[in-house]
Amino acid sequence: MRIYVPADAAARALGADAVADxxxxxxxxxxxxxxxxxxxxxxxxxxxxxxEVETDAGRTAFGPxxxxxxxxxxxxxxxxxxxxxxxxxxxxxxxRQTRLTFARCGLTDPLSLADYEAHGGLAGLRRALGxxxxxxxxxxxxxxxxxxxxxxxPTGIKWDxxxxxxxxxxxxxxxxxxxxxGTFADRMLMEGDPFCLIEGMAIAGLGTGAEKGFVxxxxxxxxxxxxxxxxxxxxxxxxxxxxxxxGSGRAFDMExxxxxxxxxxxxxxxxxxxLEGKRGTVRAKPPLPALEGAFGRPTVVNNVISLATxxxxxxxxxxxxxxxxxxxxxxxxxxxxxxxxxxxxLFETAFGLPLxxxxxxxxxxxxSGRPVKAVQVGGPLGAYFGPNQFDTPFxxxxxxxxxxxxxxxxxxxxxxxxxxxxxxxxxxxxxxVESCGKCTPCRIGAVRGVETIDRIRQGDAAAIPLLxxxxxxxxxxxxCALGGFTPYPVLSALRLAPQDFTPAREAAE
Length: 509
Hints:
By secondary structure, the chain is an alpha/beta fold. It has helices at residues 9-13, 16-30, 70-75, 92-95, 113-118, 123-129, 133-143, 155-164, 185-192, 194-208, 222-237, 268-275, 304-316, 318-322, 355-362, 396-400, 420-434, 440-443, 445-457, 464-477, 481-485, 487-496, 503-508; strands at residues 2-4, 35-37, 51-55, 58-62, 84-87, 171-176, 212-218, 253-259, 299-303, 325-326, 329-330, 332-339, 345-350, 372-377, 384-385, 410-415. The chain has four domains: 2-95, 3-Layer(aba) Sandwich (Glutaredoxin); 113-322, NADH-ubiquinone oxidoreductase 51kDa subunit (Rossmann fold), CATH 3.40.50.11540; 325-415, Roll (Ubiquitin-like (UB roll)), CATH 3.10.20; 420-508, NADH-ubiquinone oxidoreductase 51kDa subunit, iron-sulphur binding domain (de novo design (two linked rop proteins), Up-down Bundle).
């Protein structure tokens, strides 16, 4: 009997380790031979710990399973049990997805390279090894892939800039400093399918002439650090990394670097400073990192999901990937649904779904059962969208046209009891705490923003234009997105729920 129990951070936080121990103990007590595989999560977090059993008809799911449920599962021979969910792929939430980047996540043993290859892994790298640098970059450009970390910059253009740069050394840097509230796709990918990221970085190195890569991880992700470190060692021993990638004579190696977890280090130049052992402060641009990045050399800085999507593009072709999506938003996007929502988790789908369908249909509405008041899209610096905007298609330009941003595609749902005035204040306070202090609009503006919102909530309505003017200054004058995007949640909250900025709401709190 082959049983799968996720070992990623989300499942472990919900008791997966205790379930795995109970399965091992129960199998021993019954004298049964069981192979226990600690896989990654399938992304249906409300069903975790999700136990899967391999059968002749495929993998059958049970969940959410507690350690106390394990004897009953064995007694029923993992058959007709109250926790039975049927085949994993038939669960409606999972069946509706278009899984490209996350195709193997939860399906394979994360640290089995043989398992990875058996499910299509390394096909993209082998194809890339037969292509020139220019051909590799053209393939990425034609796929329409844009940065999944938030900026949405065309990946192929960034790679081509590094490819054409003259330098004795170039680098690939993976930005795994996932710090946005309500986001977990990077962690889920690294813990559930680490070789996919390694393969994507190797292809990026082949395409740009970079022979060294770094994954910059935050210290708050111990499971991802452990899995990625082990995967890099396995890949190196197998010849996937090193001076002779898969016997091609071409070189690419990489290492894991761990940061202290400063939010501002999610900004690429601050990340590079931290990577080099310096204080994580933002650099002025130009020069762009693509020309003068890590250690002063041309550097590709891409998000985890951007790089992990590259293998499927090379396996299936740029045209295949580009056929998904809408407008200039091509391919799929891993939506991370969180907050006060019934079905929280990761949902990978093509760009274009209306926001309301994501929240009400896929997410199942609020967990509290109360009406949705707002959805914050794009992390703590993302705008709040109200139900009157739920027809907005999920795409970069479409959200920009509504005064918002997709960011890392995290969605946090709030019901009608939420105080958006307090949330706007939190955005300013968050910026003040996390600012690197290098530029005045961010360093001072956020502090003044907290004070101004307090004045408004105490009855000084004349301070509202002052808050709006301050937000414009922060937008236009900040050195990076931390100060530049903080006005998004503030102004959208003010527009969506002006009643939450009144003394009556303040008194009610």
